[in-house]
Design goal:
- With 344 residues, the protein is of the alpha+beta class.
- The chain has two domains: 98 residues, no CATH class; 232 residues, no CATH class.
- Helix content is 40%, strand content 14%.
- It contains twelve helices and nine strands.
- The strands form two sheets. It has a five-stranded mixed sheet with strand order 5-9-8-7-6. Strands 1-2-3-4 form a four-stranded antiparallel sheet.
- A hairpin with a 4-residue loop joins strand 3 and strand 4.
- Helix 1 crosses helix 2.
Length: 344
């Protein structure tokens, strides 16, 4: 069963309804009145499956064709009067009325600020990393033991081997990846949600014609457009990116192991990772050489001020991929540690 078929099976049991416009519809209807208490029940919150259904409807029919969104008996979006209701108002506004979403100020985009990466960056200090040895009784997986230890110092996170950060990155770029999906006609959402991100970026930028011609050229104009989108998306409330992250994580997890669960709160990651990191990651993936495709440390944790990637070892050593990837991540501004657990 395909990813889309699994999702459609879930959607058939969902109370969400995305309704298209009908001919000769009356556009002078009065504004709908619903109070916040009408929608305070958690059953009216959008689930990941609901968000996926809305995205699917937009891809299939276009934003202008969606007349309303309801869940159960409650109206969440009405196009005629451009009204939004409920706890997911900002996410729905980002889809149907993006100009009405409050934004943080961003610096004007300058193409000169982002040049193609000819050589992978290296950290100015701190590499090779000195292992930190910790003697401790080992019960359960070493990664979970290390995560529990680090949580005592205010760190929270997950054992996801780079998939958390890469799913956030995909969520930031999701509107572009969907719109410019080279396989949109036959595969509207699986490719943007599940295709390996280090190949999806150059593939989407190059387009189908260059792919069929077996061209390795990645044009700059699409990459610059993605840079602009990253800046724009980072200016939005984190709940907007959270909504798309939930879709990404749910879909991605059907294909890729160690994917974070849908619903993992990412606001602390977004606030702790500098914006420049996402732009640098985009340029590295635009190289189309597989850089940063694997070798990420085990744990992705944050304290809200910084993000730390932790590789947990018991008996083995760093792999060749880890020795290539970790110093690049350090050069991009992420703190990395290597913890060796010694069983007592």
């Amino acid at each position: 069963m395909s990813l889309l078929e699994r999702f459609m099976g879930l959607l058939s049991r969902s109370p969400i309804a995305v309704t298209g416009a009908t001919p000769n519809q009356d556009h002078d209807r009065p504004r709908v009145k619903q109070t916040s208490t009408d929608l305070s029940d958690p059953k009216f919150l959008l689930t990941t499956e609901d968000k996926f259904a809305i995205r699917m409807a937009i891809v299939r029919d276009g934003v202008e064709s969606i007349e309303n969104v309801t869940k159960g008996e409650k109206l969440l979006y009405l196009r005629d009067t451009m009204q939004f209701f409920g706890e997911n108002e900002l996410y729905l506004r980002s889809l149907f009325s993006p100009d009405s979403v409050p934004r943080k100020p961003i610096n004007p985009f300058s193409p000169e600020a982002y040049a193609p990466v000819s050589e992978l960056p290296c950290p100015s200090s701190g590499w090779p990393i000195k292992e930190e040895k910790i003697s401790i009784p080992l019960e359960g997986s070493p990664e979970q033991v290390a995560l529990t230890l680090l949580s005592q110092n205010g760190w929270t996170g997950i054992h996801s081997e780079g998939q958390t950060i890469r799913c956030i990155f995909r969520a930031l770029l999701l509107p572009y990846l969907i719109e410019h999906n080279p396989y949109k006609a036959v595969d509207p959402l699986s490719t943007p949600l599940c295709h390996a991100i280090h190949y999806l970026i150059p593939m989407t930028a190059a387009g189908l014609d260059r792919m069929l011609a077996n061209s390795k050229e990645v044009p700059r104009a699409p990459i610059e457009e993605m840079h602009r989108l990253i800046d724009y998306r980072l200016s939005l409330p984190s709940c907007v990116i959270q909504g798309d992250f939930d879709i990404v994580a749910k879909s991605h997890g059907e294909v890729w192991p160690k994917t974070p669960h849908s619903g993992l709160h990412i606001d602390q990651y977004l606030s702790a990772i500098p914006g420049e990191f996402w732009h640098s990651l985009l340029e590295i993936y635009a190289r189309q050489d597989g850089s940063l495709s694997n070798g990420w440390p085990d744990l992705e944790i944050t304290n809200g001020k910084e993000v730390m990637l932790v590789e947990v070892k018991v008996k083995d050593r760093l792999t060749p991929h880890q020795r290539l990837t970790i110093p690049v991540l350090m050069a991009l501004g992420l703190k990395c540690r290597i913890v060796r657990l010694i069983k007592t």
